[in-house]
Amino acid sequence: MEGQSRRDLLRVAAGAVAAVPVLAQSASSAAPLFFTPVEFRMVDELSEIIIPSDAHSPGARAANVAAYIDKSLAEAFENEPRQKFRDGLKVVNNLSRQLNGAAFLESTPAQRVAVVARMAQNEKEPKKPEEKFFVEFKTSVAFAYYTSSIGIHQEMEYKGNVLQTEYAGFDASLVPIQLPDSSK
Amino acid sequence: MQNPSAAGPEVDLKTVYDAVVVGSGAAGGMAAYVLCSHGMKVLLLEAGKQLDTTKELKSMEWPYDHPRRGEMPPGYHPLTLNEYNVRNPPYAKDSKFPHVESYVQGWNGPDYSKNIVVDEKDHPYTGTRYAWVRARLVGGKTNIWGRLALRLSDYDFKAKSRDGYGEDWPISYADVAPYYDKVDLYLGVSGHKENLPYLPDSLFQRPVKLTASEMKLRAGLAKMGRVLTPYRAGVTTDGLKHNKYRSKCFGRGACDRRAGGCDIHAAFDSPTGLIRPAMDTGNLSMRPNSTVYEVTVDPNTGKARGVSFVDTDSGKTYEARAKVVILGASTLESARLMMLSKSSQHPNGIGNSSGHVGHNFCEHVMGPGINGLVKDLVGKPRTLDDGRPGSFYLARFRNLTDKRPDFIRGYGFEGSSGTTMIPGNAFETLGFGTSYKKAVRDYAGAYISMGAFGEVLPRYENGVSIDPDVKDKWGIPVLKFNYQFSDNERKMAADMAATAREMFEATGIEVVSVNREILTEGWSIHELGTSRMGHDPKTSVLNQFQQSHDVPNLLVVDGSSHVSASCQNPTWTIMALCWRSCDHLADELKKGNV
């Protein structure tokens, strides 16, 4: 079997959003399955701040990241991830009121970014509830975005999953191995 | 593999077959293929189900076309490292989840293998901690194996002669080399010739290429006398004219999705590589859903008469009879079966007059590894690196010409680098916003990582026994583990982490992280040695042709027979030894010697 680190990371990512079908659902259309409408808009806005549309590619909103997370939580076997998300969003609103004097969605775009910046300030060793929530939330967003069509094809410009006549890379014989006689 | 039994003769339990083979993975599949090719009438019994893996694996499916992006349905739970380490088996006992599967189902895209890996709830075991990964279906673990196909050398077969520990194998490289060649040519193996005496070359098909970072590491290591070589994959990269069930590798990607599997069967699997061809001889009958629980004995001769099995659908039990019984149920399941097969002639279990069945259990220790960054590659145009069936292998370098003061034997590294469909660094890159997106893009192809696989010494006291108090879903007593790593493995593991760092630093690769922790026993899925071969019937279970010392018409052709683990992945050796033993058996039968 092979090394485990990268796959473990993906596992962590996937585990946070336990599991669930996602139909192509636009952020604004169908009613959310788990989130309240306000929560859903918060998740949508937070995900777009973390992975925004920019000159290179569309972002989390266009990739329907909030809808994927919503469906994942709705179907999760355990209640714990649902509760964590709901509690986390409350923490975000409290932080926003503290920083901006208004709930997250009632703040200005710049004020919302300031809230996320505060959440992200200890990403390596998160301690406060909003810092811990940021790490979990971002992992879910990254998984949903980088497994989406936009993430794979537009953002990462992945060219695989089609027939390749030759492997990419270098022929090993370009670096010949000449071991000292003693090791033979 | 829609309905392979339709291709062979109907199973007839009134017939005395020439051979009954238990298990249909690398060992059982090979035994069936070789014996059928010799014209013998073979009955193959597989404990698991018949599954159309082409439909299960869906290697080309995009993540976003899967309802859960490759994740398992709610209620399926993969065991975590923490669960293996803080509890003792049975790990699924009292779990709140309806389905519990082994840790490999925690990897990327587990939904595709959830029906291949067993549900731990149906298959308990007890004793010391052990991450036991099992696949019960036609083809066994070959349906999802990591496909690293390596040879052993006399550094392994004659290891005792070199350092005094354990036992030499009753064979040398020269005995097995012709059979490695046969396996290479019949199944296909990709690799690059290196002429290393301690890692013999195969008869290679087209090798995979190396990424820029792998070339850099190869060049740097060459100066240290160490060899990084393109992944030696049990994958046909040029195609196999003699096998119409397998395609050559398309290099299309998704090989990174694990637990493994290849829906075009370019990677070797037993169903398309061995069982289908065996059926085409007209000599093979196969019965899935048939869990063998006893080797039956002729009360007059003490020889094996056949096997008793339970139909896992109906619960009914049957006996199948044959002139020869061949066990290829896996290292641990074959040992379990032998110990369960007690009779007045074989009170210790069949083939176990030595008392060595279940003992000398060994495998590979893993965990220590490294992740590094090649700064020159940051921001460079992306290449398609995951179309390769594997990245690289770094051959053993310890205790070849030198002698370590702190441990014996050696270890190799498996590694990978470059881009993948889903960028792993997205989960490590700090920050958010446009700068985060750009950093993920720029760094995605610049990482290189590797993890070590080290030889675990066989020790008599490391083993498995029958736990009479706990039974599986079909009422068969389960295995109890009494197995743990020793000081040699711990010292070797410390050296793995140190040399990983040393090699990256010496070649100018920035070290991002080093892992020093040993993973739970069993993690390598390379369990070996519970019925070792040897010349002396008092200290070994099988002779050099994997034939029981006690019962001449009983063979054990899986990893059970290995005398030591070496540090190379065992599947290719399992198949070469099995081919050799089955050729010998066919000869002996013709001479009337069995």
Any overview of this molecule?
The complex is a heterodimer of chains A (184) and B (594). With 184 residues, chain A is mainly α. Chain A is built from seven helices and no strands. Chain A has one domain. In chain A, helix 4 crosses helix 6 (129-146). The longest helix of chain A is centred in the middle third of the chain and has 21 residues, at 80-100. The radius of gyration of chain A is 21 Å and the shape is elongated. Residues 1-27 of chain A have low confidence and may be disordered. Chain B is 22% helix and 18% strand. Chain B is built from twelve helices and 18 strands. In chain B, strand 1 (16-22), helix 1 and strand 2 (42-45) form a beta-alpha-beta unit. In chain B, helix 1 packs parallel to helix 8 (270-280) and helix 1 runs parallel beside helix 12 (571-591). Chain B is globular. The interface between A and B is large, with 79 and 92 residues.
Features of this protein?
heterodimer, A: about 180 residues, mainly alpha, 7 helices, about 0% strand, disordered N terminus, B: about 600 residues, alpha/beta, 7-stranded mixed sheet, 6-stranded antiparallel sheet, about 20% helix
